[in-house]
Each structure stands twice: as structure tokens, then as C-alpha cells.
Amino acid sequence: MLKIEQLTKQFGGNVAVNSVDLEVKQGNITAIIGPNGAGKTTFFNLISGTFRPTSGRLILEGQDVTNKPSYQMARLGVARTFQTTKLFEQATVIDNLIVGHRLRTKTGLLGALFRTKQYRQEEEKCREKAMEALRFVDAEQLAHRPVANISQEAKKRVAIALALATDPKIVLLDEPAGGINADETNGLAELVRKMKQAGYTVCIIEHKMQMIMNLADRIMVLNQGAKIAEGTPSEISRNETVIQAYLGGAYHA
Ligand SMILES: Nc1ncnc2c1ncn2[C@@H]1O[C@H](COP(=O)(O)OP(=O)(O)OP(=O)(O)O)[C@@H](O)[C@H]1O
């Protein structure tokens, strides 16, 4: 579904992502793991069009999408979640979803300023999509609550709903289980499984290894920007390079 070829991003002299190849298969959950600073978030920023690669190619369903900006990638079906700190705390959950949808998929503001008929129709469609996404993540009952008044776990679900409201084919989840407790982590893992069952292709960055080992179809391991391993969870947990470089030899599946 998404072919990533020799993707590279340099910041000055620092190579954050170094010639990474990966094939994200349709309907799979692909995890990207690695120590802090390994290049995981930069990798997501590259495939979502947030950053332009220094070199390399991105092929989405056979189409070359290298260098497309993020709003075009969103329209083409690649959506990413952001940290929950990017939500508007004082706005309601549903308004966050509607505004988020527009920010991610539109460029012009004229329609919004003049509230054209087309704009109003689109807004209504957005609202329906947003409610559908909230139902999917089991947060429909929170629609009219300000984000500031909901739990951290609920914010995580809202962040996922925000991505789902753009009707993506591929959803990039950046640490969906960061900063929440074990029970809530299990609930989120269930949600990711439900996404897969619903036909979404999922890429996930997550530090919680147990969760990843139980969820992922494939895992790619990054270290200092480079891919050092790729395989199924059981292959990765037995990979000597991974155990040494990433897990410091202390991890046993
Ligand atoms: N906008 C930027 N400008 C300059 N350097 C950056 C930028 N974004 C990331 N980097 C650098 O790129 C490298 C990879 O960072 P990145 O955030 O992608 O790693 P990560 O694997 O996501 O880490 P973490 O698990 O801590 O989130 C780091 O050395 C970081 O300092």
C-alpha cells in the first residue's frame, strides 16, 4: 500500500532518518520502535508530508507522492495523530474534530470567512464524519464536553478520532498509549485492533513493548536514523542486533 524507498532526512549535519526502506502492507499493523532520538517521529513526519525528505521516495498505491504537503497526503488517505497537547483545550471535543478536519484537508479560508453554501454543506458533512469517528473510538458521549474536562485516556481516543474523521486509509499513531495506565493501555490496544478489523492500515510508534508485541503484524526497528531490523514480533524479540542496540540486552519476550 505504501512503499518507502531510501527515505532520508537531514537536519544540518544530523541524519535523523537514514535511507530507510519499508513496505507498509494493506490491512496490517506496522510498528516502528527504537530508542529516544532514533528518528521515529521524523519518519512519521516524512510519510505524512509534514516534512519534505532530503532524498528518497514515497509511493502510495502505485502513485509517487514524494514531497506532497500534509493536506494533500491527508486527502490521499494518510492521516496521523498528534500529541494530545495539540488539542484545543477550551473547545468541545466535536469542535476540535471539525476544526481539525478542515485544518488537515483544506487550504483556502475564503469559504470559511464568507460561509458559502458549499462551506456550510461541507461543515455538516464534517460534523457527521466527526460523530461517526467519535462513535468508533467510543467517545460519542464526550462530544459536547470541553477537551480540558476529559481524561488523558479520552484525549488519546479523541486524537485518534481526529485522524479517523478525515477518512484515511493509513493511520499513523504516534505513541497512542503514552502517559496512561495499564488498563487504559489495554483499552487502547483493543481500539487499534478494532481499527485493523475495520480495514484500516495502521502504523504505530509506541514505547510500550508488551503492547506492540501483542498487536503488530510487523515491526521495524530504528536506531540512530537507520533501520536495523524488520520482522514479526517473535523475529524481532529474538534478533541479536535489536537486543543489543535497542534493548541493551535486558529484554526478553
Ligand atoms: N525539526 C527538527 N530540527 C532539527 N532536528 C530535529 C528536528 N526534529 C527532529 N530532529 C532530530 O532528529 C533526530 C530524531 O528525532 P525524532 O524526534 O524523530 O526521534 P524519535 O525516535 O521520535 O524520538 P522519541 O522517542 O524521543 O520521540 C534527533 O536527533 C532530533 O534531535
Can you give a write-up of this model?
This is ABC transporter ATP-binding protein. One of its GO terms (biological process) is L-isoleucine import across plasma membrane. Residues 2-249 form the ABC transporter domain. By secondary structure, this protein is α/β, with parallel strands linked by helices. The chain has two domains: 1-77 and 168-252, 3-Layer(aba) Sandwich (Rossmann fold), CATH 3.40.50; 88-167, no CATH class. Helix content is 40%, strand content 23%. It is built from ten helices and ten strands. The chain has helices at residues 40-47, 70-76, 93-105, 110-114, 117-136, 152-164, 182-197, 209-215, 233-238, 240-245; strands spanning 2-11, 14-24, 29-33, 55-60, 63-64, 78-80, 170-174, 201-205, 218-223, 226-231. It has a six-stranded mixed beta sheet, with helices on both faces. A hairpin with a 2-residue loop joins β4 and β5 (63-64). The longest helix is centred in the middle third of the chain and has 20 residues, at 117-136. The radius of gyration is 18 Å and the shape is globular. The relative contact order is 0.17. Residues 11, 14, 16, 34, 36-42 line the site of adenosine-5'-triphosphate.
